[in-house]
């Protein structure tokens, strides 16, 4: 029988990342490739950022990430956000995850560490939530250089 998995989701620009977290031995795979084998070093550092905060807890979970769309940095940020949400048990409906590898006190402590490290990892990109500014450039003005 396969172990129970929890699925977590995040987006960045046009990239979408789905994360499966299970009890395991510390393997991290992105699109079925070990995270250490990702060729772009900056993208690898971004993806593994939330996992650095885990410390010895990292060896207790296996993380599998599926990423689609966008460029490699957009995918890296989407994967990092989804991983941090998976580690803290973040759900949109604020429901408690049933089969999570970590207990609730561990997750709340981890959530505080992740927020201190980078507050955008759990909440996503703040610019997505900003409303359109009144009096700002309209569609015509953005497209055209001049009116003449």
From TrEMBL:
Record field: compositional bias (Basic and acidic residues): 93-110
GO cellular component term, pick one: cytosolic small ribosomal subunit
Entry keyword set: Ribonucleoprotein, Ribosomal protein
Region annotated Disordered, chain positions: 91-110, 120-148
Name of a matching Pfam family: Ribosomal_S9
Listed InterPro entries: Ribosomal_Su5_D2-typ_SF, Ribosomal_uS9, Ribosomal_uS9_CS, Ribsml_uS5_D2-typ_fold_subgr
Domain of life: Archaea
GO terms of biological process kind: maturation of SSU-rRNA from tricistronic rRNA transcript (SSU-rRNA, 5.8S rRNA, LSU-rRNA); translation
GO MF annotations in UniProt: RNA binding; structural constituent of ribosome
Record's compositionally biased regions (Basic residues): 139-148
Protein family membership: Belongs to the universal ribosomal protein uS9 family.
Descriptive protein name: 30S ribosomal protein S9
């Amino acid at each position: 029988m396969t172990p129970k998995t929890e699925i977590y989701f995040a987006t960045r620009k046009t990239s979408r990342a789905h994360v499966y977290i299970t009890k395991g031995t510390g393997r991290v795979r992105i699109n079925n490739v070990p995270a250490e084998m990702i060729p772009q070093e900056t993208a690898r550092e971004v993806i593994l950022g939330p996992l650095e905060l885990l410390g010895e807890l990292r060896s207790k979970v296996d993380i599998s990430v599926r990423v689609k769309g966008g460029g490699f940095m957009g995918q890296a940020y989407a994967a990092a956000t989804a991983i941090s949400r998976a580690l803290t048990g973040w759900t949109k409906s604020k429901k408690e995850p049933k089969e999570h590898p970590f207990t609730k006190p561990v997750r709340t402590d981890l959530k505080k560490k992740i927020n201190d490290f980078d507050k955008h990892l759990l909440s996503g990109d703040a610019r997505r939530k900003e409303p359109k500014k009144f009096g700002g450039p309209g569609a015509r003005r953005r497209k055209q250089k001049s009116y003449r």
